Amino acid sequence: MTAQTPPTPPFRDQRLPFAKRIDDLLSRLTLDEKIAFLHQFAPAVERLGIPAFRTGQEALHGVAWMGPATVFPQAVGLGATWNTDLVRRVGEAVSKETRAMRARDDRVGLNVWSPTVNLLRHPLWGRNEEGYSEDPKLTSAIATAYTRGLRGDHPTYWRTAPVLKHWLAHNNETGRDVTSSSVRPRVLHEYDLRAFRETVEAGAVAGVMPAYNLVNGRPNHVSPYLREHLRTWTDEDLLVCSDAGAPSNLVDSEHYFDTHEEATAAALLAGVDSFTDHGTDSSKITARVRGALERGLLTESDIDTAVRRQLSVRFRLGEFDPEYDPHALTRDFDTPVHRALAQEAAEQAVVLLKNSGGLLPLAPDTRLAVVGLLADECKLDWYSGTLIHRSTPLEGLYERFGAERVEFAEGVDRVLLKTSAGTFLHVPEADAGDEVRGAEGALDPALLAGRTDLPPLTTDATGTELALIDWGEGVLTLRTPDGRYLSVAGDGYVRASADQPGGWVVQETFRLEPHENGHLLRHIGTGRHVSVAADGVRVAEANPEIFELIIAEPGEDAVARVAARADVVLVVAGNDPHINGRETEDRTTLALPAHQERLLRAARAANPDTVLALVSAYPYAVDHAALPAMLWTAHGGQAAGTALARILAGDVSPAGRLPQTWYADDADLPDLLDYDVIGSRQTYLYFEGTPLFPFGHGLSYATFAYGDLRTRTADGSLHVSFTVTNTGDVTADEVAQLYTRAVEPTVPRPRRELVAHGRVRLEPGEHKELSFEVPLSAFDFWDVAKGDRRREPGPYELLAGASSEDIRLRTTVILDGEAPAPRPVLRRGLAAADFDEQSGVEIVDRTKTSGDAVTPAKGGSGELVYRDCDFGDGVTAVTATVAGEGTVEVSLDGGPVLAVLTAQAPDAGPYDYSTASAEIIAEGVRDVRLRLRGPLRLAHVGFSG
Q1: Does the global pTM surpass 0.85?
Q2: What are the boundaries of each domain within the chain?
Q3: Which entry of 177, 237, 243, 277 is annotated as an active-site residue?
């Protein structure tokens, strides 16, 4: 007999819809197989021919961590382009390289963890480089463009599956896994949720990753917002992937649950579908899931729900239909198109901040001095791939102006470190066989850092002159004449074995600590001091060496020398993305590091025609009064130097725009943990001071005129158009920005708010009409009295211009809406978190699964105000739902205390609520003021007649 071919199982049948195929596959998986799918590294199911699957491939501005790839500008640099078409093309290139790299290395995943859409609320946030903007509209526009590029445009099969990071209200690294962001309802709906929502609704998002922090007292990994908000925005199955180690944090650092079984069950029920924990070891997570099942905390149906979401992504990626997957044969990698795109993106990201007297662009015969710590660097960050090509500012200027017209001085101090024995630190020369060269002849940091086969430092009579690079805040690196950085390997010895500072724990940073008549040299990565022993220099707990620091040449001297000989000086300053502001580390100040300030002053004193180019992942507060010109760019990837040189030479007119406010002083900033952007007047939306440079700012080598502003309302939208004309003599891009402002708001509203923008290229004399369709919902705000969005009727100003402060056109429109209504306190009472104003209060979790309460900050006292509360014909009693211990004092319209509600449950848990009551007489519409005293939680206040 001829053997019959077994029938194709339905989950392999390409003709069936994905939902039916997933149903069939789920029915074939055993419980153990489904549990195994819940870990980041899901194993293969060989009996069904299902390969292993890994969630998570970093792809923030190129494929990261998997070796050589095209490196585009940092995310904040892509945000500075204000160009959604460009960013879509970057996402498309990144997704094609992801596919091409996976074809030769199956460790490369197609579930990409990017982009980061956390709003850049606070410029001292260490991960500023990973976000796009402080504005939710711009952030969502750029993020949507990037995800569309990552997803691809095939109607069925996705090229990659993007996961947005990090849900929600995550903007501090200090205590990031234990701090809680207190987010009032208006800030939640008008600010933090918006960037996620508009990107998810656009239809190119496969999932989200919860952040490490807590929001309103509850860890994001058990957030009810995943169910209440996120999953209501789309009909697609969204995959929620935990952040690394976060499931264990629920018990180990946050102490939110007593056992890991409880925590794992709670996260799964809240909506987490894939657990990133313990690296490749899935045994701990699977054991916790089994334990939760045995305790009745989970059912198999709960596990099915999570596995279904993961399978939905895998089906969309074409995993089960390789013969139909249009992306399966994608091999576009490091193509000329990708290289040109990297340069285009780097050029479009450059922001011209100042250009007094027209110093820029530089004349072709300019004799140029190039100085500064970043002048000959092409820095990578934690989420970069390995460079295939690189271009530093110095290299770009050599290429553009000719090496004979460009003179370089890095400006670092050249030092010797003398020991107490009278000898000097000596760096043994690397043998030819010891050096491992990468692309473009650079030392390969992946192969050099951490090496133990290179000789450690020793001491001798003459020593080695080292470049001491001061990055500010007492952090420095030491580099040998041949370009190697001093680094500490796992055995504790100090070697010259790194091409750049880097790594999760940077092993190339040190501090000089004054001690007696010299200095101790502390290695920051280990916390230990450098000591000198017979077998070499190492870090140790005991016997620290006392060094005398001998400065062979101050960096300022070299800078002044070359600056005096030049027509124009270019000072390239900024940050190393692995130092002083990065993941796990917030900055402490906006100030430019003191050493770089000294270099800038030295250049300026020697030559008044000094241009400052800041290459950084975040804003600085720089006194630019004496500077004729100033630029900023984020670290621009592989083409950074070429791009900057072309901008300086005028080959390209700059058109980048600031994606966040640059503040003039640290005093302008709120506390890093203050997330109330409305109450503390944060970002350009509410800031009432004078910024150093405003949101949306950026100059051009051309000039532009705006005119013919017209508006009309139709089909639920406001249609706005105006013309932009290039009145200059060079071809240039203009970024036209449209803002709105409520003229007569009854609650605090933004000073102005971006509703649309467009980047347009214009030849000299050319004009174009820009048209925008602004949905009327863009004028809504979250009405805490109503518990929903509402648009106030009345006048709204429309402002068109070149930045949030450079307004060229304005008009006023009258919009219909819903008139404000008093709070119906007799019917609904007052949800404690729905306040209009607060001081000294933070929002906390009402229960571990849902709801909000309020509590005095640090157990002291705080005040809440609720405007326009309607008591009707009168009330005689007030009740409060409270937990803990303390009092709630009730007053009306700022008058005397009329009632005191006492909570007395010192031994009860934080979620054990009871009702306190008191008599009160009130009628009509009044403002209610509550003063909270003591460590209590207030969930709700009610009134009755």
Answers
A1: yes
A2: 18-316, 340-411+555-667, 420-546, 702-815, 825-944
A3: 243
